Amino acid sequence: MKKISLTGIKPTGELHIGNYFGAIKPALELTNEYDARYFIADYHGLNTMKDPKELEFTTRHVAAGWLAAGLDPQKVIFYKQSSIPEVFELTVMLLAFTSKGLMNRAHAYKDAVQKNIDKCEDTDAQINMGLFTYPVLMAADIILFDSDVVPVGQDQKQHIEMAQDIAQSVNANYGQQVLKVPQPVIQENVAVVPGLDGRKMSKSYGNVIPLFAPEKTLHKTIKRITTNSQSVEEPKDPDSSQIYQLYKLFADENEQASLANRYREGGMGWGEAKEELFRVVNRRLTPIRERYDIIMSDIPLLEKTLQHGTQKAREIASITIGRFRKIAGVL
Ligand code: ADP
Ligand code: TRP
């Protein structure tokens, strides 16, 4: 039997190439070797997204993003988190095995506390319980499907370790393996994708290259990449330039070597380097963007695809929940 790989993406904004290289592509690469379960974590999104139209749109956007990037719904169980009531039942059961202290130590929670302190806001009033218990819902997402591996970015490692802790306290309490303990798969070779300003590409920094932007917008966005004041003639160091870091993700080895040489020789300005980058990015993203547009033009079909995945997911989920309830004496 193949091992199980599971991951989810929160629908909290427009997908960007950091999400593609850091989360979507590595997860899709595991789908031959593993039985994959991939989903849209819309209830995780609700913590911060209170506009219904926006949440509905971004949930579909992320679903279409997975499919446009190559997810095959015949091969991968693909669903929305909110369609699986067993996730919430398991969350309640896991809450009973989770210490408040564990949640106090979560990086995301601690960052939110610090931000509120910096703004002189009342932390307890500003932080909702969805954010505080976020790692428990995430543990339920993972544990419900007997997941062996969870492909995620480095920033999610602590959440997976918390899922391990929670599963282990359940198992220790009953003296048997009720729940499978998952392992994170962090793609070490996927470096952090840099954004337009050289910091990590992130929607919270407003420095992203959107995955599905129309060609013109893509071109304009790439032209906004910040550069230093070196003149056209000056030789340049490819490794310290985010244009070149991004170029490496999209270009083949010959192209990479040739652009690196041109940097080192001098005589190429930043404007020209950006045009080279645009050419390779657009070449790679055009087919993905075209598939995305087709998928988003038929929402009923997209919903049908997700419903099909939901049915398969719930069959598996009911087995785990049944097993846990029986052992816990909740009949
Ligand atoms: P954002 O930082 O834009 O809010 P998310 O936190 O929603 O992105 O990230 C979703 C997934 O994409 C996570 O698995 C995360 O590790 C990955 N990811 C996000 N930004 C990058 C990046 N710049 N480089 C590599 N992976 C990234
Ligand atoms: N917390 C993850 C993120 O912010 C999204 C997520 C929710 C997830 N549930 C999950 C990832 C389960 C892996 C497994 O990126």
What is the molecular shape?
Answer: globular
Tell me, rounded to a whole number, the average pLDDT: 96
Rg, Å, rounded: 22 Å
Number of continuous helical runs: 15
Based on helices, strands and strand pairing, what is the structural class?
Answer: mainly alpha
Calculate the terminal CA-CA distance, rounded to whole Å.
30 Å
Q: Which residues sit in consecutive blocks of at least 5 with pLDDT less than 50?
A: none
User: Within the largest sheet, what's the order of strands?
Assistant: 1-2-3
Bound molecules: adenosine-5'-diphosphate, tryptophan
| Element-level helix/strand string | EHEHHEHHHHHHEHEHHHHH
Quantity of strands, as a count: 5
For the biggest sheet, the summary is: 3 strands, parallel
Instruction: Give the % helix.
Output: 55-70%
Proportion of strand residues:
5-15%
Comma- or semicolon-separated keywords:
binds adenosine-5'-diphosphate; mainly alpha; 3-stranded parallel beta sheet; 331 residues; binds tryptophan; 15 helices; two-stranded parallel sheet
How would you describe what is shown here?
The mean pLDDT is 96. This protein has helices spanning 17-29, 42-46, 52-68, 85-95, 100-104, 107-118, 123-126, 129-132, 134-143, 157-174, 215-223, 242-250, 253-265, 270-296, 299-328; strands at 4-9, 35-40, 77-80, 149-152, 183-186. It is 56% helix and 7% strand. The protein has 331 residues and is mainly α. It is globular. The site of tryptophan has 13 residues, from strand 1, helix 9 and strand 4. Adenosine-5'-diphosphate is lined by residues 9-10, 12, 18-19, 21-23, 152-153, 155-156, 192-193, 200-204.
